[in-house]
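Hi Y.,

Following your request, here is the sequence exactly as I used it, all 290 residues.
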Amino acid sequence: MKRTIERVFQGAPDHWVGDGFHVSNYFPAATDFEKRMSPFFLLDYQRPEKYEPTTLKRGVGTHPHRGFETVTIAYQGSVAHHDSAGNGGVINPGEVQWMTAGGGILHNEYHEEKFAKAGGILHMIQIWVNLPKKDKLAAPKYQALTDASIKEAKLAGGKGVVRVISGAYEETEGPASTFTPAHMLDLRLKPGAKARLPTPKDYNTALLVLQGKVSANGSPAVSEGEFVLFKNDGDEVVVDALSEAIVMFLSGAPIEEPLVHYGPFVMNSVDEINQAVEDYNNGKFGYLKD
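Below is the corresponding structure, written out as tokens. Let me know if you'd prefer a different format.
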């Protein structure tokens, strides 16, 4: 049974994160959205935007996180990451950085040096994935998902592919290991493509159109920058491409626990937030030079 569309909306007005990411927040900025997309907690979208060449570091300096994971997906441009657990790397177009903050980590994110010097288009998404209470203090870890490691399922008639970042699509499984079941699918569609995306009825489910126009479960055209939230009343989403299109599809098992959010910390109680702040101030998240 196809899911009913609950609402279609654009993200909040663009704002700067540091001096390198000009993003629109889709959730939790939307009204009553703090848990509506659980286990996904936040989605920031950097629309395609040209950055002029520079020799300066451009991005977000060293900052802490605890209690969740950050997932950064690059479509154009390159971003470098370093963290206090000793991990580092560069994501290029088609690649993903999946960082588990867990019990506490410091990290920074900058335009990759060669990209910054040359300038160019940056197009990316960052998604925060909440962790269940039992895993909130897990050891930090880092998954670098290269373009080659992300498997593709071909659609009928050669009309496109479904790139599976996490979870599964039909028989194709994604390379990311997750603490909670979460399907994160990157659809690259040609005009006339049809993608049938099955998902359990209780999973919170949505899609974001990054390029082109599509119809979702028979809807009128949904265009670039529009986010479609589905009701939990069916077990399938059907995406029909009305033009060449790129779509991010999210569907995950909700975490039915209390949630308290304060800046870079996502925990279950105010006491845990206070403890996170105290631990950060006492240097327990490690050390990282900017």
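The helical segments are 113-118, 270-281.

Thanks again,
Q.
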